[in-house]
Amino acid sequence: MHTPELKAQGPILDKAPRVGASDTTVHGEVSVSLIEYGPQGCHETLFSSVAEGLAYQTKAEVLWLNVYGLANPELMQAIGQRFGLHPLVQEDILSVRQRPKVEEYDGYLFLATRVFHYLAGEERRLQSEPMYMVVGQGFVLTFQPHPLGVFGAVRERLKKPDSMLRLHGADFLAYTLIDAVIDDYFGVLDDFGNRVETIDRQLLADKSGGVLRSIHRLKYEGMRLRRALLPLRDMLNQMTRGDLPQFRPETRLWLRDAFDHCLHLLESLDASRDMVAGMLDLYLSIQSNRLNVQMRVLTIISIIFMPLTLIAGIYGMNFDYMPELHWRWGYFAVLAVMGLIGAGIAFSFSRRRWL
Amino acid sequence: MHTPELKAQGPILDKAPRVGASDTTVHGEVSVSLIEYGPQGCHETLFSSVAEGLAYQTKAEVLWLNVYGLANPELMQAIGQRFGLHPLVQEDILSVRQRPKVEEYDGYLFLATRVFHYLAGEERRLQSEPMYMVVGQGFVLTFQPHPLGVFGAVRERLKKPDSMLRLHGADFLAYTLIDAVIDDYFGVLDDFGNRVETIDRQLLADKSGGVLRSIHRLKYEGMRLRRALLPLRDMLNQMTRGDLPQFRPETRLWLRDAFDHCLHLLESLDASRDMVAGMLDLYLSIQSNRLNVQMRVLTIISIIFMPLTLIAGIYGMNFDYMPELHWRWGYFAVLAVMGLIGAGIAFSFSRRRWL
Amino acid sequence: MHTPELKAQGPILDKAPRVGASDTTVHGEVSVSLIEYGPQGCHETLFSSVAEGLAYQTKAEVLWLNVYGLANPELMQAIGQRFGLHPLVQEDILSVRQRPKVEEYDGYLFLATRVFHYLAGEERRLQSEPMYMVVGQGFVLTFQPHPLGVFGAVRERLKKPDSMLRLHGADFLAYTLIDAVIDDYFGVLDDFGNRVETIDRQLLADKSGGVLRSIHRLKYEGMRLRRALLPLRDMLNQMTRGDLPQFRPETRLWLRDAFDHCLHLLESLDASRDMVAGMLDLYLSIQSNRLNVQMRVLTIISIIFMPLTLIAGIYGMNFDYMPELHWRWGYFAVLAVMGLIGAGIAFSFSRRRWL
Amino acid sequence: MHTPELKAQGPILDKAPRVGASDTTVHGEVSVSLIEYGPQGCHETLFSSVAEGLAYQTKAEVLWLNVYGLANPELMQAIGQRFGLHPLVQEDILSVRQRPKVEEYDGYLFLATRVFHYLAGEERRLQSEPMYMVVGQGFVLTFQPHPLGVFGAVRERLKKPDSMLRLHGADFLAYTLIDAVIDDYFGVLDDFGNRVETIDRQLLADKSGGVLRSIHRLKYEGMRLRRALLPLRDMLNQMTRGDLPQFRPETRLWLRDAFDHCLHLLESLDASRDMVAGMLDLYLSIQSNRLNVQMRVLTIISIIFMPLTLIAGIYGMNFDYMPELHWRWGYFAVLAVMGLIGAGIAFSFSRRRWL
Amino acid sequence: MHTPELKAQGPILDKAPRVGASDTTVHGEVSVSLIEYGPQGCHETLFSSVAEGLAYQTKAEVLWLNVYGLANPELMQAIGQRFGLHPLVQEDILSVRQRPKVEEYDGYLFLATRVFHYLAGEERRLQSEPMYMVVGQGFVLTFQPHPLGVFGAVRERLKKPDSMLRLHGADFLAYTLIDAVIDDYFGVLDDFGNRVETIDRQLLADKSGGVLRSIHRLKYEGMRLRRALLPLRDMLNQMTRGDLPQFRPETRLWLRDAFDHCLHLLESLDASRDMVAGMLDLYLSIQSNRLNVQMRVLTIISIIFMPLTLIAGIYGMNFDYMPELHWRWGYFAVLAVMGLIGAGIAFSFSRRRWL
Hints:
The structure is a homopentamer.
Chain A: E1 31-37, E2 42-47, H1 50-54, E3 62-68, H2 73-83, H3 87-94, E4 101-105, E5 108-118, E6 126-136, E7 139-144, H4 152-159, H5 170-202, H6 210-241, H7 249-314, H8 330-352
Parallel strand pairs in A: 3-7
Antiparallel strand pairs in A: 1-2, 1-3, 4-5, 5-6, 6-7
């Protein structure tokens, strides 16, 4: 079990000693498709059962086996045995806990990455799914939990009669699939950037604090995207440097381009994240500014009305001997004094900008 | 004393020249178990005294000596002499002040790490204990202050008749034990993540400030976990790189997997810590927002009622000559004026969103 | 298509097999100019159509082809074929998504950078455009979306009879163009610095919060400039280190100077950005200080007037038996008491600086 | 003067050509002690004058010269000449401005570090003093401004008849002295940690702001300790790596242990510093929370009492025609209305948690 | 012009083909002094014109040419040609935009650094000037815009008959000059540290916000100093590593000391900057604390007086039937009730520390 053997040139899924009569397990969410191609042509086969797949024979130059649905240990074991995958690789593909990485094994590479998409619905929650890839001599295996359409365009290109893709080997297919994943990220990041701008426009109008929660959700999503992109960048950097013999020199030039796109993704994500951080600061400064304005208004109002109310209170006292009360123009004099005091205070505020 | 000699192939604990009659000290909290195994079988022995252990003879391929209870210098010295441990290693195991590290000595490795667990009870405090391991040619020694059950699963696997574990050497056992420690961290981090989410849900409802202290406690715990995981990651990285001859190349592939799990732990911890930091910011912004709302309410209330109270005060003055008081509809006119002023201010606020 | 061939010594744009009758597409915003020079002289030709350019023959030592307008795939393909550019380079030049970088291809270098300028108008928005350069043996190609005048000075220097520029090769021209781009940044950063200082002067006077939005816009612009300058610095560093054979050792000394200017740009940008960050902090601290002053005033006013208003209210009560009301000097006594209380509170504040 | 010569095997302080009749300067605070030892024994001599020291002869294997009091250029010069110290080393030891470092000279090492201690007294101020060490072939020189007792335990160990210390060379003595310095730091950091915890307990009770100043002082002290520990760590790392021939391989294992202790010190310091930073944040959040509570109370009180006071004011007006005043139950009706309004507002607050 | 030739052993400023009759330009602010020395002696010459300088002949071992005043292209060109300086060096010295750096040219080093000083006057503004140095075989050139006295002490030391300085070459002179620059920084940083402490003492007393602006100015100054010291440190590190053949091994030991002083400068600057940052935090926390105290006072005052004022208002109403008004002790009962309510509220606050 610890000495992986590479048997990719032979038929696919030819034997599954430990799976036995488990054909029935390959149903429901699990679906397996095999694309085999070369300069001459391209052929796709969909398998409805493992047994069917095991009986299949091929002579094509490049094989691409795509599996949707990960929770199937028997299928995994069959594939693992057919392509000589190390137990650790099989375990990694089956487990949910995988961080993006590239690992070199004897004769093949194992790549793990994540694919993001926004859920439909009012809330537009950001979700992610793992995507695994094994790149060997003449074959590429891809594993995803659900069909999200990331590889649709690649499949179309392969089926076109004069496709350049068919002229290259399995390593170029691997590059093309990684490029499709990166293209998918561009869409997600555009979406993210649009939401940041939408909320930026709502920032000044908001008084209820609803925008605050949105900003914080954007912040979390930005962190999650970054956490997925950083190892992807490291993966691509490692592949570009040329340490991995699976990728031929002419493919490395294209990988360098994919690496560059990944750097671009990270920079545009960082720009959006800076904007979110700035929005949060701006929101809080606007709040603080508003508080100041309110406080100033309250203070001015209090300074103006408190003395006037006191004066009115004084002449509302019931003392027997209050000479002013009996003056002919006392009432108007008091009103005038009140008006003068109020105007004076207001004037001194507007003049000296004291507060 | 400075020239450590490796005598692991001979009997365990056969002589203890400096311990003398200290058999009685190996009681209470200290317990020593020895598991010896090979492809043929596995045997576990529990020692109730050092003397008993000293008399024990073994011929198995791999020895695993597990000690619970660290505060026993005589036992330490006996074991140290039996396995040729450097005085510094003995000192490190006995001391409480140890940071996670891996140190290479002549013929064996010394590993120190920490194991975390949540105390039962209302408060669920996070506690940690040191865990020491010595990996040599054909033997693994583990030292822990208390039995926490981290290695229970490994012991079970060893005892299973067809266990793959028995086919490998001491280095694979060391990997398996480290993996058990990492699995233990996964549980602790899940627990930590759950508590973060629980408090996140309480965030908006809280007005008493109780949630604030909880957030800060989570922040501390996150720091402590990070401080334990970082050196663990460095340890595993060092072991994976292959500088250490104790680990054979085929085991290194498995160590790389453990290293990867450790990176995963750190990333998931960082995600939780980012969430805690975001919660703190969010809490403070919500507070600030609330303050603003209260201030706005207070200011509006003051602006509406202060002028009205002044008017009522003015007509409560006792001047002899106040013509309005004697008008037929004066009272209702004043009430109407008051109503108009109040409504006007309220209207202007709602209209111009002045505050 | 994957084996780039260098044919720069032959005529420019001599054939365009895939462009066909697309001459009409090279109009409107696209304009192509060719400068050819050597120690003997310098000649500039403007092409109004691709066909015209394709028919052109040259024998000069250095060719500089400058293209304004990027959205023209046919022109790009013609140039690409003429100078043997890799499909990835052509794709990069046509795409809008390009981060600053330098890439080495077989026989030539591809450089991508950004040029910034402030839009005219009230708001003075900061805009950027990509600028691409290909440096090969005896030729330099530059691509820009619009004529912004960055290379005007270089063109002038080339046309001067005794220009030192003509004595050097294509690599020195490339250095001169990069230096022109860097000089352009100095202008933009001066402008940026001036705006920072303008807003710094408005900081203390502002009460409306308008300055807040300006500070945040400066913050974003600073980030954008930094994000463009950082890869430019890395590019120049790479060129200076001498890994790229396109640049001869004597040119590298000049590139080191350009690298140094780029470091200077970054430091002066960082100084401005620190100032912006400081302004934001200062603004918020001033706000907080103002809030404190207002609060102190409000509190003092309330402490002084609330007791006095209560006293006035008490003597405004209508109880039958209130002896003070009938005292001869009751009213004046109350006024005096009020004055004393008010003065006492004010005195205690000014004396003990209690608040 | 620039060609240092190592003459450590000869007698100590035998000649002091430039010091001359300066014996009288070696009094007061300066005190010199010489410990000479080997496997056979250990002997300590205290010198009351330089001349006395110059006349002293020794044959021991290891010499440890300890000097208290640094401000004595003549003594420094005598020692410098006796042990062949570079002028820069002499200058460094005499100057107050020294950062922790290790410097390799021809034949000996110069180490500078700092020793911390808390001053007695109410305030418990943290103070530091420089500590210099020169490690050569067969001798160790230590220089301190005052006797702080850091090396007391080492001196005791040397004097014990069966001390292991005597069996090793000067490099092991140097390690032991460095270890004593590190042990001293453990005490200081424990003290620091205790004070952090003391203030943490006072945090919630404090309303005067006194705790704020204490937190800030702890923050400064933490920075100072960190600034001293970081270069100490680098020093030890450098010594452990084995670049310095003064330390033999068997001593390096012990130095690695000291390095590890130093990392432990830094981690525990960082934990305390994180706690201080968290306390500051917590203090401010508690403040902000308290402000919110106060504001809520003030707003609720104002909303309840302002309308009621207005109503009371209205019925205190002196209009001739106010029908309600003459109703039989008008007064009680108004009281009832007031009660209803107050209760209604209070109820709506408690019900809808509006603020 | 691109092949610099070293002609330092010949006469200084002997020919100036491109300067022509520009002798008159060397007046006003420009002043040139030449110090020539060797073990035998030292001689200083002041030139009042370039022609005078050009005619001067020397045979001394080391030449130090010091120029005050940079805005003189003709003089620069003359010196550049005499010492074979690269056009880039000449350009750098003439330009104002120079960041600290060390650059190696064929046969000499070019060093650029900055010198700081505080302007006299009330505000004590921090100003900086560039300082350039060229170190070649047997000569050192220094360029400064104004005489600031930084090199005064070096000049004095050179003129002393038994100066050690004269025994060493040009590289030691260069070290001595750099050391003088570093000593100058010590003075500036002491000044900076003193101002930080002065403002720290004013912190608690300030209520006007004036201290806030001072803190922010210190923050800026700290950043500027740091930005000048960081490249100086890198310069010295590069010189110490020994890559530059201009500095002989025995000088490198002294450069290491200068490097160390530079690290010390940076650490003490960082300590001051941390203190400034802490002061800002402390100021804001004090503000926040004060706001809290004020708010508490305001809230307590409002809670006490608002109910009492309402009660007084109620008994000031003019209803015909208000039985309490006619009670014999109604007035005193109300006063008593008021007193009880006020005391009760005050008591409950002081008792339960509710706010």
